[in-house]
Specification:
Shape of chain A: elongated
Radius of gyration of chain B: 16 Å
Oligomer: heterodimer
Number of helices of chain A: 2
Structural class of chain B: mainly alpha
Number of strands of chain A: 9
Helix content of chain A: 25-40%
Shape of chain B: globular
Largest sheet of chain A: 5 strands, antiparallel
Structural class of chain A: alpha+beta
Distance between the termini of chain A: 40 Å
Order of helices and strands of chain B: HHEEHHHHH
Strand order of the largest sheet of chain B: 1-2
Chain lengths: 144, 195
């Protein structure tokens, strides 16, 4: 019972306070506004931001920092898949692809694509650890 | 606690990588099968706990269980921390692949120092656990601040240390509570790292 409680508490706490940078996009034509948070709650204030245009790998289209509320905006000049990188300088970083499209009225739309949800990443990490542990255990237990 | 890529100088990053790889090899040799399961369990625990963050002084901090890992695993703590950091880097972008060596050295040193404190004779286990948990956080913080100062970020030193004093106090209390729990339900596990 106690073990079950500890496991449940650990996982429910992880989902509440997950240590993950998240990026949510807001449409404000002609600008695209990014809201950065730790797990959807605490803003990532004054974090370094690099924005890369489609096809650009080396030189960023724009750089700067988020404001006190974790907000950063930029005005894209073309359609395609942009790359939005935010780094708080304390070892936490998120790289988010943003698809920019223009509608018939000339409005700009930016949509962020999260590669994996937090829960999926957590389960993936734990599955890898369990898998590696099982593999090593089997390897070390072989009769010589 | 994680140092991100591109912040520290190349010399420090490469040097730390060399030290960490040598330490993984030296401290991870001749592992017994029964050690593997404990290592996996503590790696999973550290992985999950590092995702629980606390907003503090305008940034975000988290626990790492370095002191507890040092107490329970002894010298095996270093390879476990290295592997856990690798998973955190790949899945959560905590730190970075280039700074993996620096982070492993910083946090691994905290765990090994905690183990050293745990082995000290003549002190109550509760006190040793508290100090080990505290040192497990403050050692990486101190090393990180030192590396930052070497790379020209000297003024951040005292600020970082002040933030991590709070984290260290929380982790020290948690380590003491965990050790008290193990003493009650499975005291043998606390003696394994002394072998």
């Amino acid at each position: 019972m106690t073990k079950k409680f500890i496991c449940c508490a650990l996982f429910s706490t992880a989902s509440l306070w997950a240590h993950d940078l998240q990026v949510r996009m807001q449409q404000a034509p002609p600008a695209v506004v990014a809201h950065t948070t730790y797990a959807g709650s605490e803003p990532v204030a004054y974090a370094a931001v690099l924005v890369y245009a489609p096809g650009q790998q080396e030189t960023e289209y724009q750089n700067g920092r988020t404001d006190a509320n974790g907000v950063f905006s930029f005005v894209p000049d073309r359609e395609g898949e942009w790359r939005f990188v935010v780094d708080d300088g304390m070892g936490h970083r998120a790289e988010t692809p943003i698809t920019v499209s223009t509608d018939a009225a000339g409005g700009v739309h930016g949509t962020a694509h999260g590669p994996m949800s937090m829960g999926l990443k957590l389960m993936t990490g734990l599955a890898i650890i369990v898998g590696v542990t099982g593999f090593l255990y089997g390897l070390k237990s072989r009769p010589r | 606690m994680h140092v991100a890529d591109g912040i520290l100088s190349t010399e420090i990053s490469v040097g730390a990588y060399a030290v960490s790889m040598a330490a993984v090899y030296a401290l991870g040799r001749r592992i017994e099968p029964e050690e593997v399961t404990r290592m996996g369990l503590l790696s999973a625990a550290s992985f999950v706990v590092s995702l629980i963050h606390f907003p503090l002084a305008g940034t975000s901090v988290h626990l790492g269980l370095f002191g507890l890992i040092g107490i329970l695993l002894g010298r095996r703590a270093f390879p476990v921390i290295f592997a856990t950091l690798l998973f955190q880097t790949l899945l959560f972008q905590h730190g970075g692949l280039l700074s993996l060596g620096v982070n492993a050295v910083n946090m691994g040193a905290g765990a090994l120092l905690a183990w050293g404190i745990w082995l000290l004779p003549g002190l109550p286990q509760g006190a040793k656990a508290f100090v080990a948990g505290f040192v497990g956080v403050m050692t990486p913080a101190l090393l990180m601040a030192f590396e930052f100062s070497l790379s020209g970020y000297g003024r951040g030193f005292y600020y970082l240390m002040a933030i991590y004093l709070v984290v260290a106090a929380v982790e020290a209390a948690l380590t003491m509570a965990a050790v008290a729990y193990f003493r009650r339900v499975k005291p043998g596990i606390l003696a394994l790292s002394q072998a």
